[in-house]
Design a protein that fits this description.
The protein has three helices and 14 strands. It has 216 residues and is of the alpha+beta class. A hairpin with a 4-residue loop joins strand 2 and strand 3.
Length: 216
Amino acid sequence: MNQYPHPIIAREGWPFLAISIILAIAATVWCAAWSIPVWIIALFVLQFFRDPPREIPQDVGAVLSPADGRVIKVERTQDPYGQREAILISVFMNVFNVHSNRSPVDGRIEQIQYFPGKFFNADLDKASTENERNAIVLTTTGNQTVTFVQVAGLIARRILCYVKAGDVLARGQRYGFIRFGSRVDVYLPLDASVKVSIGDKVSATTTILAVLAQNG
């Protein structure tokens, strides 16, 4: 599995970065003035695939953001993957965010559900149920269910997931990647205490989305 330490530039981006740099160099050799747009594209690819390590909060019961982005939804709803009522927190990623996905909690993966689908803009409500998506249902070390879903977007055309049912994840552990604009939905138990609001900017791993109730 893809765990830290790993290069600051995500390995998923190496081919894209190599191609863009080669094209930029070729354009520079051909005509320096005309190479500027190509170098801008190369810089965009470089920033898109950056994947810096993050400090991992150790607060008891903390649910960490699985992605960089902006909170676009906090509501009570039905978790269609875990088959329960839940609190949904959705994080929208634009093309300037880091797109590496990290586990929000410690626990064991019970099941992974992949659904082919459409590619609506990821900040639309229907994206959660109609877009291509990959859902992980996990049982935490505290025996609670947390579901997190990678959702493709208007530009995102590739969801990458490197784990399988039965794997044990640690909070902050890198488990997947989505290429170019997307969202991650997190479904939590109803008694979780939410720590973010709609419109908040969050960072993968370092931002605490919620705190799970401690039973017993």
